[in-house]
Amino acid sequence: MQISSLFLLFIFVFLLWPLNRWHRSRESLAPAVFAGLLLGLLFGGLLQLARGWGAVPAEVLPWVDMLGDGYVNLLHLLVMPLVLISILAAVVKVSHTQSLGKISISVLAVLLGTTAIAALVGVMMAKLFGLSAAGLVEGAREAARVEVLNERIVRVSELSIPELISSFIPKNIFYDLAGSRDTSVIAVVIFAVLLGLAALAVRREFPEEGAQIERFVHVAQVWVMKLVRLIMAFTPYGVMALVASLIANSSWADIVNLFNFVLASFAAIALMFLVHGLLLLLNGVSPLHYFAKVWPVLVFAFSSRSSAATIPLNVETQVDELRNSPAIANFSASFGATIGQNGCAGIYPAMLAVMVAVPMGIDVLDPVWLATLLAVVVISSFGIAGVGGGATFAALVVLPAMGLPVTIAALLISVEPLIDMARTALNVNGAMTAGTLTQRWLGDEVPGAEIIEG
Predict the structure, then answer these.
(1) Which helix (H) or strand (E) is 150 found in, with range?
(2) Which of 55, 204, 290, 384 has its CA 20 to 30 A from that of 349?
(3) Measuring CA to CA, how many Å separate 194 from each of 155, 211, 218, 319?
(4) What region does 54 belong to: left with phi over 0, alpha with psi -120 to 50, or beta?
């Protein structure tokens, strides 16, 4: 390793010290997350500048990635135990099981409804900015990506909608607890609900054994939540490393070349955040108070590009900051990581569809074509993987269903990570919005929390 690389690594380690001091001096996690974001931006910018000074950032980035990826891995480690125990505890504590159905329906209605709105916003932004696939250039990197997409589309095309929905049902719970499928989170949710319903049946028939089960679930939940808070304490350092790596690896030339698409994407995402805020406002929830509480979650989702990894922080923030019921928080966070993602499953495939359809002479504002696109987007939003790359899966489902080629998904690969971060933040915010609205609508039926009033 060069001396300059050692010096840069020393600076990174040194920056962790004031971040630690700042974190320990604050009770709230939010200020430390913001500090980690700023330090990550500064250090990532320094690595970009260091290339011009003859340094080799590639020697430093593996150490930075070790911290960022290690933190994300710990969060992935939490996902399945947290979902299993939290959903199980929620079911065991609910006195009227029909409220579970109401929670699920309400959360899914918001997720799928906002995904349809997001698709419409994507279409409008693509038209407004005049986006078209005609001017995109295919290089060696894009050509290689096309080959990968062609392989994936074969697998996707063989999976029908009924097969996709049936894949939610667990066949081997240990396989799903290992997160081996894109739909493993929903499978674990279903298993936890069934396990909880069985516990309720035991409590009715054998009160003594039922009380023991409830006690065991309570202890397990306290234990897992203590683990969650232990790992959440590393969030500022993980955010700092993830943001630094992102800035250092960004290609500003590619961003400039596809600036129109980048700008249209961020405009659509920003508009959907306004839609979420409007929905909250119409239901008596202050958007300002809401976003002040959830922005650390959005920052982490932005930097990690993983809705699934954000589930622990999502649940904790909904319960502790938004005062949503644990049952609602866990259902909305779990469903939102796989179903109805506004950014990845809504905006992105709709924008790509318009960009491909326009050069083909299709009138994208034709009511029939537009309604078909929105229906396909909503249906295909079931089972989108809550990790980086889920948007590509959505595009591989939507574009062929509309009779459009998928090559465009490869031509945008150079700016994909940057836009995917904002899409992931929108996905996570959609899940928290669904939980908050559900709490507002069903608060009396699901006790244990109170909503932020407007």
Answers:
(1) helix 140-157
(2) 290
(3) 30, 18, 17, 23
(4) left
